[in-house]
Amino acid sequence: MKSRKIVGVALLVFLSACSGNSTKTTTDQDPADATAQEAFLPLEIFDAQDALSAIIDPEARAVIIGSGYAWTEGPLWIPSEEMLLFSEIPANKVHSWKEGEAPQVYLEPAGFTGEGSRGGELGSNGLLLDTQGNLVLCQHGDRRMARMLAPLDQPASNFETIVGEYEGMPFNSPNDAVYDAEGNLYFTDPPYGLESRMDDPAKAIPFQGVYRYSNTGELDLLLDSLSRPNGLAFLGDGKGLLIANSDPEKPYWYRYALDENGFPTEGEIYYDASEVFANQPGLPDGLKVSSDGTVFATGPGGVWVFDQEGQVLGRLSLRELCSNVALNEKEDMLFVTADSYVARIALK
After folding, report:
1. Rounded to 5 degrees, what are φ and ψ at 105?
2. CA dist 44 → 34, 57, 91 (Å)
3. Residue-level pLDDT at 24
């Protein structure tokens, strides 16, 4: 989701090794400087704790790998192709990027395949691979979870519906999704892909749900109590689910314990970002969890980094609204979709 009308001002100070409330600015290069061999987004590290230095170098830079897009989302690393995919939602496209190459259009259309035209955020959002290695898309315009019926190296806008409705009502606009180890699909369904969002006359479901589509074809509503569920990921051993809530009134990340069948039992606020949201642009949005339990989550003021216990290790600001993140298979590179840019940040 994009929060276009929220403006914040960052107070920049130099990173001090003895201070937990600190900022490191790695570059002030103009992103539009085409004369540079590599273009960078200014990367600032806020509130860095000592443990963050084991994850990211204080001198790390955010290297631009693509720019000039309407609004980027859903980054996904494809190990078999050594390729990054990302959605450009308003343009109804998915783009691809490989090392040493310029980004190119991978799929068009990507989220709305119907007749005629429509406005709003009509493209695909979250992207993921199913257990067979097929590309799965959260399609805003078609209001469904869909699978691409083409090989990854020969993409085509030929899709089949995985699931598209709840109790006979079309979804709002599936936003982000994740598979568990058994192949059950979890996804969120806020209203951001509808042209008039909450007030859209086509909105059929009165709540913003979190769902589970089982590997046997059964759809279960897991949660109907969150105001704007967005990004989600499993924590640790898969017994916990982290969900971002992109609501200005409740800019929270929630954590839910899962029972032996993968259903939520109890929930709590994982982190309340209200204080930072009051002064920084953005809301809790996309997130990824590394194999060691480190959480990278876009939110107010950039990319937040949490340890496996939920403690904030620091925040990476790119001076742009950040929507989502992805890790490569080695987990030594973090990809960030940031408004009209896509950038990568080297990790240790």
Report:
1. -70, 130
2. 22, 12, 30
3. 46
Please, which pLDDT band fits residue 55 given cuts at 50, 70 and 90?
very high
Neighbouring-strand partners of residue 97: 84
Q: Which of 212, 291, 225, 281 is nearest to 254 (CA)?
A: 225
Say if residues 197 and 239 touch (Cβ distance below 8 Å).
no
**What is the pLDDT averaged over residues 147-158?**
98
Sequence-distant (6+) residues with CB within 8 A of 242 are 232, 233, 234, 235, 253, 254, 255, 256, 270, 287, 289, 295, 297
Q: How far is CA 128 from the centre of its chain?
A: 11
- Give the span between the Cα atoms of 45 and 317, in whole angstroms: 6
Residue 22 has pLDDT above 70, yes or no: no
The contacts of residue 300 (CB under 8 Å, 6+ apart) are: 8, 251, 273, 276, 277, 280, 281, 282, 283, 284
Cα dist from 269 to 46, 262, 283, 296, 322, whole Å: 22, 19, 15, 17, 21
Which pLDDT score, from 0 to 100, does residue 116 have? 87
Tokens representing 331 are 């987990």
Cα–Cα dist 274/333, whole Å: 29
Residues in the chain: 348
Closest-CA residue to 323 (of 163, 86, 138, 91): 86
Which strands form 144-148's sheet, in the order they lie side by side? 124-129, 135-139, 144-148, 159-163
- Pair 42, 116: CB distance under 8 Å: no
In this predicted structure, what is the pLDDT of residue 32? 44
The token pair that represents 297 in the structure block: 């989550």
CA-closest candidate to residue 317, choices 272, 281, 289? 281
234-248 mean pLDDT: 94
Burial 13-43 (b: 16+ CB within 10 A, else e): eebeeeeeebbbbbeeeebeeeeeeebbbbb
For 331, half-sphere exposure in the C-beta direction (CA atoms, 13 angstrom radius) is: 10
Omega prior to 109 cis, within 30 of 0: yes
Query: Can you read off the two tokens belonging to residue 38?
Result: 């590599």
Residue type, 32: A
